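User: Reviewer 2 asked us to show a designed sequence for the structure in our supplementary figure. I'm pasting the structure tokens here. Could you produce the per-position amino acids so we can include them in the response letter?
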């Protein structure tokens, strides 16, 4: 417990984000023993509660925008887009006359429209950006924490839905298919690329190998197809 407290103190000194014991409370999952809960409360000197009455904060890794780490409900997206569309109507509050449909207002400025963002797609883009960082920056704090909790035995792209998922993780994980549709492996010196399953072929329409010819049925990894010639793999 003392070690954790020291980590929090060092983090506070480095970031300027200090714990205010008078304004702070602690919540523990059911997996934490009662003794450990009280020991932690004594060390940090904050009270323990069963749940938050109101939570206004965000994880520090999330930046300042909630839509970067959680998926907005469709009803909320529709309501916001409706308000934006009505704001641009021709007759004000008395009579809403829309000169153009919302979909046309979202066309790029380069194509002659106003270039408003479609909130649903924009929200998904921000979530995919977080997923990209988690999947491809293995040394980051965010990756380390989430990997230990959700995909300790596999990669980000191999994780299933599972159970007891946080809403944040469920939202970020929901962009797996979007990312997988556009990524591919670079074959330089990575020996772990699988011939089947991993997208590594250079042509856009044929990233993954669809089937193996008979000579390659026993080969699993791309490295097995390469020859080492004077230190150069061909």
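Assistant: Here is a per-position design you can include in the supplement:
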């Amino acid at each position: 417990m003392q070690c954790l407290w020291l980590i929090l103190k060092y983090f506070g000194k480095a970031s300027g984000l200090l714990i205010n014991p008078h304004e702070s409370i602690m919540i523990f999952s059911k997996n934490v023993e009662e003794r450990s809960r009280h020991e932690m409360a004594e060390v940090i000197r904050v009270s323990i509660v069963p749940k938050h009455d109101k939570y206004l904060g965000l994880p520090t890794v999330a930046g300042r925008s909630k839509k970067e780490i959680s998926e907005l409900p469709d009803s909320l997206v529709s309501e916001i887009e409706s308000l934006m569309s009505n704001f641009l109507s021709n007759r004000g509050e008395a009579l809403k006359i829309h000169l153009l449909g919302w979909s046309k207002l979202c066309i790029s400025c380069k194509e002659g429209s106003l270039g408003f963002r479609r909130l649903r797609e924009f929200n998904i883009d921000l979530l995919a950006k977080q997923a990209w960082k988690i999947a491809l920056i293995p040394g980051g704090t965010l990756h380390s924490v989430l990997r230990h909790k959700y995909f300790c035995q596999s990669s980000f792209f191999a994780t299933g839905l599972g159970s007891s998922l946080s809403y944040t993780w469920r939202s970020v994980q929901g962009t797996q298919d979007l990312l997988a549709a556009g990524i591919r492996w670079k074959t330089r010196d990575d020996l772990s690329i699988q011939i089947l399953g991993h997208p590594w072929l250079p042509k856009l329409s044929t990233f993954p190998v669809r089937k193996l010819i008979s000579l390659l049925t026993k080969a699993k990894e791309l490295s097995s197809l390469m020859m080492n010639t004077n230190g150069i793999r061909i």
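For the response letter, you might also mention the following. Residues 2-48 form one domain. The helical segments are 2-15, 34-44, 74-87, 102-105, 119-136, 141-150, 167-173, 176-180.
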